[in-house]
Write a structure and sequence with these properties.
14 strands, two-stranded antiparallel sheet, binds flavin mononucleotide, about 500 residues, TIM Barrel
Length: about 500
Amino acid sequence: MKSAFIVDLERASRTANIGIVLLCLAFGIAGHLISFYFHFLTVTFFLLVVLNTYWRHGQTSHALLANFGFLAQIRYLVESIGPEFRQYLFASDTEERPFNRLERAEVYRKAKGVDALEAFGSLLNFERREIKLRHSFYPVDKDQLEPFDVAVGASRSLATTYHIKRPIMISAMSYGALGENAVRALARGARLAGAVMNTGEGGTPKYHLMEGCDLIFQIGTAKFGVRTQDGGLDEDKLAAIAGKDQVKMIEIKLSQGAKPGKGGLLPKEKITPEIAELRGVPMDVDVISPAHHSECIDAESTVAFIGRVQRVSGLPTGIKFCLGRPDEFRALVQEMKRQDIIPDFITVDGAEGGTGAAPKSFMDDVGMPLFDALPIVHETLSEAGLRARLVLFASGKLINPGKQMTALSLGADALYSARGFLLALGCIQALQCNRNTCPVGITTHQKHLQKGLDIEAKARRVANYIEALHHDHVELLTAMGASSSRLLSEKNVYSPKRASTLPLAEERS
Ligand SMILES: Cc1cc2nc3c(=O)[nH]c(=O)nc-3n(C[C@H](O)[C@H](O)[C@H](O)COP(=O)(O)O)c2cc1C
C-alpha cells in the first residue's frame, strides 16, 4: 500500500512538471501580446523545462531526479545547506562536533584579547561526569611559580638542547594542507609570542621560515624535502635543513591520530605548481604518503632510524604517533633501551586529532584517544626507567586550558594544538579543509579566498591566544597547588572512569 506522503509527492511533482511547461507557454504568449519583458521569464522557464527533461529522461545516476524531476532538486538543495542551517539556527551551544560553539567561542575570545569572564554558572552538563581538575586546599602564590621551561635534548647533553618556554606549540600542519597566508600568520604569531611551530610533512619549509619563528621540522613517511630517489632518507638534504638557524628540533612522524596506519593525504585539488615542486610530486593525482617509513619495519629498525636522524641532524629528535597496541609500544621502549637510542621527545597524538584530509573510517574508528593513551605511554616509559630521559608532548583537541592542564597532569610536558590555532586564525569549522574552498582562506590556495586572511591581523590573534592560554595555565596551576606543571600527576585529575590516585612511577626530571 502506498503511503500518503508518496502519493502527495508524486502528485505534486506531476503538477510541477506540467506546470513549468504551461508557465513557459503562458509567459511566451504574454511576451508576445503584452510586454517583451515577459520573455525573461519565458527564457527562464524554457531552460528549466530543458533541464527537467534531462533530469527525468537523460540521466541515470539520481533515481529521485529521474522519478520526480525538478522538485527533487529542492531536496538536494535543502540537504546541501542543512549543516549551515543546523549550525546557525538549531544546534545548541554544546552540541556540535568536533568543537561546539562554547569551545570555539573561548578560542575566538582569547584570540581577540576579549575579557573571558562569564556570569551565573557553567553551561556544561555536570551530570555527564566529565574529567575535572582537582584543586588544592592550599593554592600556590604566583610568585612561587617556576617559569615554564622544558629542555629537549638535555639528557643527551646536546649543544643544540632546545628550551620550550611556552606550554603550547603549533602542531604539524604542512604548507599544502594550509595556504601561504595561514602558514605565515601562524609563524609570525608564534614568533611574537615566543612559541615554537611544527612544519608538518610538506617538505622544505619555505613559508614557515619566512617569519623568523623557531621550528620543528617534520619528516613524514614520504620524506618530502629529505627524500632520495627510492624514497629513503637523503642525509645531505636533512643536514642542510637541520643546519638552518630556525630549525630547532626534528620530528619523525610514525603516525597521526586522525589516520593512524595510513600516510598523509593531499587531494589533487590543492596541489599548485609550487607545492608540486616543493614535494617533488605530480599535480594531477592525490598525493598519498606511504603508511610507514621504508626504514621502519619493526622495533629494531625503527629505533635504528631514530638514531640515524639524531646523528645526521645533530638536533633534538623525536617521534610522533597515535597509540594503537600498548604491547608494541612496550617492545619499542625495550628496544630503545637495548640499543641505548632514546628519542629526545615523543609526541602522543590522540585519535580525536584533526587532519586536512583522511578517510572517515580512520577518523572515526582507529586509534586510542589521548587521555587513554597518554598515561599508558607515560607509565610504560616510567617502568622502563626512561621517563626522565625524554620529554612527552601531547595533542588531540587540546584547545582550552582545562583540557591542556589535564594532559599535563596525565604525563605531558608540553602540548601541541593544530585546530585551536586554526580557530584563532578565524576558522568557522566549515569542514572543507580537503576541498580547497575554505571560506576563510586558511586551508585553500585560491588567492581570492586567501585575500580575507590578513597576515598581520591574524598573527596578532595567534599570539594573543598563546598569551591567554599561558595566563590561564598560571591561574590553574596556582589553584591546583603546584609550583610547576612538572609536579602535576594523575592525582590532580578527577575522572570517574580512571583510578584517580595513582602515584607517578618515576619523577619526570
Ligand atoms: C589542516 C591540518 C593539517 C595537518 N597536517 C599534519 C601533518 O602534516 N603532519 C602531522 O603529523 N599531523 C598533521 N595534522 C595533525 C595535527 O598536527 C595534530 O596531530 C592533530 O590535529 C591533533 O591536534 P588538534 O586536535 O589540536 O587539531 C594536521 C591537522 C590539520 C587540522
